[in-house]
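Per your request, structure below.
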């Protein structure tokens, strides 16, 4: 009797969870998290996503990320429309994590200051991973990294409607050697701008 119930239960779980969604270029639609005070320092915003990525759901691999918006009338710019800007610096992440490291908050603070003085520029945050893990897992982790950076910037007052995110997972490494020193460079959030 027990084995008869196990099969339908397993099928019900599979149907209920559905298929993983493809990560895509997305506008920032979440409201900014409220800043919290750090011990011994001025009030600093904390990213909404400050956890390990272990146990997170995977997403399907996409050949080219497609644009996704919250409303059908709001057209988001293509990632190809964004360009490098020397004033915006990347931040890096620990292995299998997507929380903002304390050392990287200064970089994000500087990026936010530049964005405030260039209020007409739009921002694209790319999430990247090292080669370890499945492609699907790395796409989901890259998305979480981009969202963590976005949450931090919106907490500093950058308007969410100016920010789009995209995950490339392991597809666009900065360094192609094997080893921790190289992998650490690939675990990053990369910032590009588009003048409005």
């Amino acid at each position: 009797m027990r084995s008869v119930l196990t099969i339908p239960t397993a099928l019900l779980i599979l149907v209920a969870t559905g298929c993983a969604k493809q990560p895509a270029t997305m506008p920032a639609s979440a409201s900014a998290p409220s800043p919290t005070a750090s011990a011994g320092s001025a009030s600093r915003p904390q990213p909404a996503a400050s956890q390990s990525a272990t146990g997170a759901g995977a997403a399907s691999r996409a050949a080219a990320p497609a644009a996704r918006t919250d409303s059908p009338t709001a057209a988001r710019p293509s990632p190809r429309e964004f360009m490098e800007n020397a004033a915006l610096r990347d931040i890096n992440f620990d292995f299998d994590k997507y929380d903002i490291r304390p050392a990287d908050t200064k970089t994000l603070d500087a990026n936010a200051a530049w964005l405030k003085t260039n209020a007409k520029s739009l921002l694209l945050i790319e999430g990247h991973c090292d080669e370890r893990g499945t492609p699907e897992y790395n796409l989901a982790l890259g998305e979480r990294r981009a969202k963590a950076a976005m949450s931090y910037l919106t907490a500093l007052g950058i308007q969410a409607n100016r920010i789009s995110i995209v995950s490339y997972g392991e597809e666009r490494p900065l360094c192609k050697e094997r080893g921790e020193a190289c992998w650490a460079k690939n675990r990053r959030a990369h910032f590009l701008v588009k003048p409005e």
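The chain has one domain: 23-195.

Regards,
D.
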